[in-house]
Amino acid sequence: MSAITGVEPALRAEAVSFAYNDEEWVLKDVSLTLPRGKLTMLMGPSGSGKTTLLKVLAGIVKPQRGRVVVLNHAIERQNHRKLSPLIGYIPQQLGLVRNLTAMENVLMGALGRCGNGKALLGIFPRHEIEQAQAALDLMGIGHKATETVFRMSGGERQRVAIARTLLQRPQVVLADEFVSDLDLALASEILGRMRRAAAQEQITFLMSMHRVGLRDFGDHILQLYRGQVALGSTNSLQAESTTESHS
Amino acid sequence: MRINLLIPAFLIFLLVVVLADFGFFDGARMLRGLRNLGILTSEMMPPDVGVLPVAGKALWETVQMSFAGTLLGFLASLPLSVLGTRHLFSPIISRTTRFVAAAIRTIPVLLWAIIFVILVGLGPLAGTLGIGAYTVGYLAKIYADLFEGTDPEVIEAVQSTGASNLHLVRFVFLPEGANAILTQLLFMLEYNVRASSILGFVGAGGIGFVMQVYLQTLEYRRLATVLLLILVVVLTMDALSAWMRKRFLLSAQ
To answer: How many Cβ pairs closer than 8 A exist between chain A and B?
Structure first.
């Protein structure tokens, strides 16, 4: 277990088990805690259950056993709208709408705060548009706001996806393998930006990753092996002491 | 390997049986047909261009009918296809909607035209509504399947932002499906232009009525003009939709 004394966890999973069919547990009795405002890396070989764990934590699929608590709210599968201020989710292929512009994709982060009225006509409040632009600026692609996503490079798309999640302003962001396709320099840069965002906005990040070279960007590491947490919080103490200098 | 040969061989055998039953291999009969083709063609020549004003006017009505009917059906198919999307609605709603669309589709457009002639009387209104009805049944199914085929990752990601079902339709299903939506709409318009040229046979307006009159009075030279006019319109439609695809479809799909 990876509880860090003195820090209230942002997310807690208690004995979560999940299977897509009756034959085999993809996750077996997984318990973990995510310290608030930290970037936790979820490492593990492919097939170890990282994606499934993230989907369970995001409330997209419901575990057969156990429960997930985010900032004292037990998550339930149906209620996307109530979950959206708590949990943001970035899937492996980013889940961007390719035929829309970067700005339109980022503004989708605000949909949880918008009714079915003007947003359906594509009209968003001015302050949301300003914040969407600010999120794109923060990611260094403010000048590409009107570019259609399918015309963008892989690295630019990653940044659009992060900007969308930043506009959503969730307490916890769950990101699946999403810098894996990038070269090391770009991946490092994006992880650096996420780390700064984590520290500044007190956002808690959990990122799955199979690339060992990037693990040092995490404040905290969870190792998943065959659906079980094999090892937790390897450098959490170190992260505790160095967080200040990073932020 | 043996099965690979067996199936086509069986299909060809079936084809031969059916054709023989219908008299395809009756040499004298087919020869007579060939001779008649020559007579018919010679009687169509040269086309009587004197009927151009009458035929042109009727053809214009056909084009109007297919345009209005296709758009009407398209607009009605959008909400129906959303209701038929299993990601969004309970199985009862989506299955019922899909059943309704299938039932509408079962009835051919000519029969729809007859039904609407009974309901609203003779003329292009009946034809327009008939085309619209058939279009709804067809597009609602195609679009519902299209929406269901949307990348689940995109749906999950946007749902996790707290988007409502209507938001999903507006920001995921419609933009992600835009290319296929337009392609199918253009296909439907082309199809309806061709299909609606016979609706006049049952009094539902357009060029069909003129065609029928020339057929029954054996005025083949006038009929030839009508057929040539339809050919021109169909070719124009093809060119137009090719241009629209090139102009509006996003290239990197």
So the answer is: 96
**SS3 label, residue A143:** helix
Reported for A57-62, long-range contacts at CB under 8 A and 24+ positions apart, including other chains, are A57/A11, A57/A13, A57/A87, A57/A172, A57/A174, A57/A206, A58/A83, A58/A87, A58/A89, A58/A174, A58/B156, A58/B160, A59/A83, A59/A87, A59/B160, A60/A89, A60/B156, A60/B159, A60/B160, A61/A18
Per-residue pLDDT of chain B (253 residues; tens, 9 = 90+): 566 788 889 999 999 999 988 988 888 888 899 998 988 888 888 888 788 888 888 889 899 999 999 999 999 999 999 998 887 888 899 889 899 989 999 998 889 999 999 999 888 899 999 999 999 999 999 999 999 888 888 998 998 888 888 889 999 999 988 888 988 998 898 889 888 888 888 888 888 888 888 888 888 888 888 888 888 988 888 888 888 877 776 554 4
On whether residue A92 sits in a domain, the answer given is no
| Range of the structural domain that residue A56 is part of | 1-86+170-247
Interface test with A, best of B150, B160, B168 (most A CBs within 10 A): B160
Give yes or no for B43 touching A (CB within 8 A). no
Question: What is the CATH number for A21?
Answer: 3.40.50.300
Residue showing tokens 């390897």: A234
Do A34 and A152 reside in the same domain of the chain?
Answer: no
Is A96 close to B164, i.e. CB distance below 8 A?
Answer: no
Of A89, A98, A114, the CB nearest to B160: A89
Q: Which residues of B touch A94 (CB under 8 A)?
A: 153, 157
Residues A146 and A197 in one domain: no
Pick the CATH number of B57-248 from 1.20.120.140, 3.90.1200.10, 3.30.160.100, 1.10.3720.10: 1.10.3720.10
Mutate to test the interface with B, among A108, A173, A176, A178 (most CBs of B within 10 A): A108
